[in-house]
Specification:
By secondary structure, the protein is of the alpha/beta class. Helices cover 27% and strands 17% of the residues.
Length: 343
């Protein structure tokens, strides 16, 4: 467990940096995510003494050591469970969960699912680099078919997990995506996640320079980014491309999306779908898209608040249970058959 120093005024990202040496591989995307989180905390004016970062096991899970707040470096996959306990014990705390594709979607998949379906008021950031980095490059639940690694030397035959599809299937009420090095967009998504009441799930595409370098280059490389990234905004058309002439529409007569060009084949901007962040069906369609046939959809894909778990738990605690008013716990424990054990 790491603890925060005494409260003091904060005004910049440096105020949220701990005195610990940051130890990730040179060039790792985790540095950019740490910088974005510290910038987010500063912009929010987050109280360090009321902020908690909880992590599991993996490269991403070093995170609590590097922010000057409270933190728990827990065990493999259990960060959502520990974070749920913290939030129930003190709902006034701002609790962030830091996990990776290996930590959160393998042994931790069960715990992540329940935190999302319960709608615990947590900010959950999943670093996705499609590989196990800390344990030296084995294929992970999000690795693509054919990934060669020490644990899949002939190429993985597993179908990969889509983190955002998993989150939607678990009942998450806030689902978003961002890229590690796109600081303005990542900070904005993290702020949105913070302000959402309930479980916020953010997948961050994070480059592992040692074991899976440039795995996301098909949509993050500067040469292709404008054509391969679609940054969604609520109420705005789903347009992308350098000239904003490419867009998504429903394929006529189906519930499938297709990428089209405005001005070709009779397509007008009126044919382009408008993003509705409260539409779960649309969100499910958007998270299923991937290059090269489609752009990668980024930003807040789904946001539709619902009752928060700890609010309902505390409401129950304050409601009398019929038939138990004035009950004597001591008498209850001693009713029925009892035995006296002699010396």
């Amino acid at each position: 467990m790491t603890t925060a120093a005494a409260p003091r005024p904060v005004s910049s990202p440096k105020d949220y940096a701990s005195d610990q040496e940051v130890r990730w591989c040179p060039g790792c995307g985790d540095y950019a995510i740490l910088k974005a989180v510290q910038k987010t905390l500063a912009d929010l004016g987050a109280a360090r003494e009321r902020t908690v970062f909880v992590s599991g096991i993996g490269c991403s899970s070093r995170f609590p050591y590097y922010v000057s707040t409270y933190g728990f470096h827990t065990i493999h996959g259990r960060a959502p469970a520990v974070a749920t306990g913290i939030k129930l014990a003190n709902p006034e705390l701002d609790v962030w969960v830091i996990t990776g594709d290996g930590d959160g979607l393998s042994i931790g998949g069960n715990h992540l699912l329940h935190a999302l379906r319960r709608n615990v008021n947590l900010q959950i950031i999943l670093f996705n680099n499609e590989i196990y980095g800390l344990t030296k490059g084995q294929y992970s639940p999000t690795s693509r078919r054919g990934t060669r690694s020490p644990s899949s030397p002939q190429g993985s035959v597993d179908n990969p997990v889509s983190p955002c599809a998993f989150a939607l299937g678990a009942g998450a009420r806030f689902v978003a995506r961002a890229i590690d090095t796109q600081q303005p967009q990542l900070v904005e998504v993290l702020k949105r996640a913070y302000h959402h009441r309930g479980a916020s799930f953010v997948e961050v595409f994070q480059n592992c320079v040692v074991y899976n370098d440039e795995v996301f280059a098909d949509f993050t490389d500067k040469s292709v980014a404008p054509e391969m990234q679609l940054h969604v905004e609520h109420g705005k058309p789903l347009l992308f491309g350098k000239d904003r002439k490419r867009g998504l529409r429903l394929k006529p007569g189906t519930l499938e999306l297709e990428a089209v060009t405005v001005g070709e084949g009779g397509v007008t901007e009126k044919d382009i779908l408008v993003h509705d962040q409260t539409n779960r069906t649309l969100a499910s369609l958007l998270v299923s898209l991937s290059p090269p046939a489609f752009p990668m959809v980024l930003g807040v894909i789904y946001c539709d608040p619902a009752p928060v778990y700890e609010d309902e738990i505390y409401a129950q605690m304050g409601t009398p249970v019929p038939g138990l008013q004035g009950a004597d716990l001591n008498a209850l424990l001693r009713q029925g058959q009892t035995w006296t054990v002699g010396g």
